[in-house]
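task queued by scheduler; priority normal; single chain, no ligands, no partner chains; default sampling; output format set to structure tokens
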Amino acid sequence: MLKKPMKHLLTVLAMTTAMVSAPTVATAAEKNASNIEQGKELAFSRSKGNCLACHAIPGGTIPGNIGPALIAMKLRFPEKSDLFDKIWGKPEKTVPYSMMPQFGHSGVLTDAEINKIVDFLYEL
């Protein structure tokens, strides 16, 4: 059995570690929420993602109907990387003769912006 001072020291150490780690978890959640909100702004922006020009998206107004509705994206793209590749426009991942613009390939969106849009779409 541990002596009382050692047990006390270990308890204090464990509590201190838990208190120091807690803000990191909250910060990660806040960062994810921020990415989702920024992704929504990019997706709805007429000068950036402009997803609404072709897709119906929950919360969007005046959607287009060229592309499929962007709902249940986790089911349609179980791997986030596949959705990223679709938006980026990697030739080996896109359907031939797709009307989907190659946003990353053409430089319209950065990789960071596409990741934020993917985070937003994954919440739908």
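post-processing summary
- The longest helix spans residues 4-44.
- The mean pLDDT is 84.
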